[in-house]
């Protein structure tokens, strides 16, 4: 399986960023076929949590999934104690304010729609167009409705719709649950990126890569539930090595330039911001896409490379 489709399909929508986009797409108007939900009530969740401290500050670092099933209880006592102790909750980007939602209404047409006279179907070969006509209705999508979209956005819309059929819900996603947890408290919010930056990471992928990824998604949409299930179970049970392989492994090996742009460079951008947080005082809870934390070029190891002692809790 090539990594391109996983990159554009699951990583942004679930575990590696673009939290704003995942929530926006999940709320998009698309008729949903009868969901075939997966029951996660049997999972004994203990997702990974790290802590880095100095004389006057504690920083917790937690990997998120932007869309999750309602049946998965991932909010352990230790994790929620860390959230409750924080004066500031740091997220990838603003996913909840009215201002952010209004901005998305502008950014999606700007970055996600084709130029006048260009359609999605015009970028596809005949075989892929036929496959689109066959597959799209299974997630409640009409091929003609996707025609105005650039391949990266059409791919995400199909994938998020399929994920929702599994019983996944953006309101059950990690960020939205954390936001609800601190709602009405004195907790402040901080953000590492803007919505425009997050969308730009995807929109900037070369068009030929986008088209290839879209075609692969059509071929693999039926198998998506198993792949997502593997990722979620690895995350929920704290199996960091397996999660890294599921989320980053193929992309890191076969598409290093994309991995560098969408994962590694963003991780590096966050390190000085985390260092600035540590220069302050108090307790901060950082929650970013789970795919950004593991591996030699993940946030945890990058902080250790800078001399910080990052301890798994």
TrEMBL record:
The keyword Aminoacyl-tRNA synthetase does not apply. Keywords: Signal. InterPro entries: TraB/PrgY/GumN_fam (IPR002816), YbaP-like (IPR047111). It comes from Maricaulis virginensis. PANTHER family: CYTOPLASMIC PROTEIN, CYTOPLASMIC PROTEIN-RELATED. This is TraB family protein. Coiled coil: none annotated. CDD domains: Tiki.
């Amino acid at each position: 399986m090539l990594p391109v489709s996983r990159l554009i399909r699951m990583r942004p929508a679930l575990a590696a960023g673009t939290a704003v986009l995942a929530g926006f797409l999940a709320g998009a108007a698309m008729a949903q076929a009868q969901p075939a939900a997966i029951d996660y009530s049997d999972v004994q969740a203990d997702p990974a949590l790290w802590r880095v401290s100095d004389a006057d500050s504690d920083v917790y670092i937690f990997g998120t999934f932007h869309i999750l099933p309602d049946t998965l209880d991932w909010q352990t006592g230790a994790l929620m104690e860390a959230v409750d102790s924080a004066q500031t909750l740091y997220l990838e980007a603003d996913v909840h304010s009215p201002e952010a939602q209004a901005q998305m209404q502008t950014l999606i047409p700007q970055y996600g729609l084709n130029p006048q006279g260009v359609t999605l179907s015009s970028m596809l070969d005949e075989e892929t167009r036929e496959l689109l006509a066959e597959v799209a209705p299974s997630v409640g999508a009409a091929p003609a409705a996707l025609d105005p979209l650039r391949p990266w956005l059409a791919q995400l819309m199909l994938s998020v719709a399929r994920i929702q059929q599994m019983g996944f819900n953006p309101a059950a996603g990690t960020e939205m649950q954390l936001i609800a947890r601190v709602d009405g408290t004195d907790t402040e919010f901080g953000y590492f990126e803007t919505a425009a930056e997050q969308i730009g990471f995807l929109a900037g992928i070369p068009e030929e890569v986008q088209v290839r990824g879209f075609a692969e998604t059509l071929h693999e949409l039926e198998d998506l539930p198993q792949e997502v299930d593997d990722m979620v179970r690895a995350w929920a049970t704290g199996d960091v090595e397996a999660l890294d392989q599921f989320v980053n492994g193929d992309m890191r090996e076969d598409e290093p330039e994309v991995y560098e742009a969408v994962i590694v460079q963003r991780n590096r951008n966050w390190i000085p911001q985390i260092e600035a947080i540590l220069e302050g005082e108090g307790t901060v809870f950082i929650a970013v896409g789970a795919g950004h934390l593991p591996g030699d070029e993940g946030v945890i190891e990058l902080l250790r490379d800078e001399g910080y002692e990052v301890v798994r809790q």
